Amino acid sequence: MKKIRTVFWVTLCLALTLGSCKSEKNASTKSDLAEKAPEMAVTAKTHLGGCILISPAAEPPAGLYQESEVVQTDEYKPFTKKLAVYGITLIARDDINDGFMRQIAKTIKEMFPQNEAIDSELQKELLRNLYKYRTVIPLFWGEDHEFSPLDKEAWDLTTSQNSICDIIMEGVPGQVNEVVEHILHHVTDVGLHFTFPDEWGISKTSKIYKAMQEAIEKGHYNVEQYDEDIDEEERTRVLIQEYAYWVIFTAWDLYEPYGPEAEWTGIKNPEDLKEKLPLSYGLFEETLPKVMASPSRATLDEFIK
């Protein structure tokens, strides 16, 4: 399942080799679309791992906890509207429901609560990094995505100027997982990477990479489907972003109610994670509760009503 979406997104963005969605996928549809998607010219000199801006490209605002309305824009062509929230910009075309965008924004806000359990300065640093490296999530309706030739040119420019590491699809099976997973991909690839480089960095020297090796060796994380013919740095980023998602999703106790069957096996809840993958559980406990929290079940269930 993951491999299918990776192939599609590689073709869509060329260097943006995204491994993604654990919600159910239509393999034949993705294969057909791969032949139609646009190519990119993003180079390793500007983006790490095919999607993360290496150098800051924006100035964070004085007030970091900002949320805009859904507004029309031509800043992210071929997308026509945007909603900015806590350093993440959601972009969409007119076929995406404004209410869906607002519900994603609500989910993001709940991931970054302001309370006594949070290290406020560390959380603010994470949000600053989301702003600085222009974190953008495109939204698409369903699994069929196609651009016109003019749209392809505009898309090339948009991806070259931002950190775009995956997409969120509206109207697909597994909608809760679809949303949470791809928010987390951007938060880990950009926010955690720059805020906790030794712990969550997109690097083979980071603690998350070491923890991932433990999971692979114990048979809990199957990476065979990631053997794509892609740049090694991009593959490393894909492996880490996917594994980081599984760890956080499970540690938040969201896997059993919302998680699909995929390459993550034998770990279904925080207790399993603690017992079977102590490196991953320890890394989560040492860092994530300081800056993030799980969105509420009530908010997540709104996606499937």
How do you describe this structure in short?
The chain is an alpha/beta fold. It contains 13 helices and seven strands.
Class from secondary-structure proportions: alpha/beta
Largest β-sheet summary: 5 strands, mixed
Kindly report how far apart the N and C termini lie: 25 Å
Low-confidence stretches: 6-11, 13-44
| Continuous helix count | 13
Q: Mean pLDDT, nearest integer?
A: 87
The portion of residues forming beta strands comes to 5-15%
Number of strands: 7
Rough outline: globular
Helix content range: 40-55%
In order across it, which strands form the biggest sheet?
A: 3-4-5-6-7
> What's the helix-strand series?
HHEEEEEHHEHEHHHHHHHH
Roughly how many Å is the radius of gyration?
18 Å
Question: How would you describe this structure in keywords?
Answer:
alpha/beta, five-stranded mixed β-sheet, 305 residues, single chain, 13 helices, two-stranded antiparallel ribbon, 7 strands
Protein architecture, described:
The structure is a single chain. By secondary structure, the chain is α/β, with parallel strands linked by helices. It has 13 helices and 7 strands. A 5-stranded mixed sheet has the order 3-4-5-6-7. Strand 3 (71-72) and strand 4 form a beta hairpin. Helix 4 packs across helix 6 (175-195), helix 6 packs across helix 9 (232-251) and helix 11 crosses helix 12 (278-291).
What is the fold's blueprint, element by element?
Blueprint: H1 2-13, H2 27-34, E1 47-48, E2 52-53, E3 71-72, E4 81-85, E5 88-92, H3 98-111, H4 120-132, E6 135-141, H5 149-161, E7 168-170, H6 175-195, H7 197-200, H8 207-217, H9 232-251, H10 255-258, H11 270-276, H12 278-291, H13 297-301
Parallel strand pairs: 5-6, 6-7
Antiparallel strand pairs: 1-2, 3-4, 4-5
Helix pairs in contact: 1-2, 4-6, 6-9, 8-12, 11-12
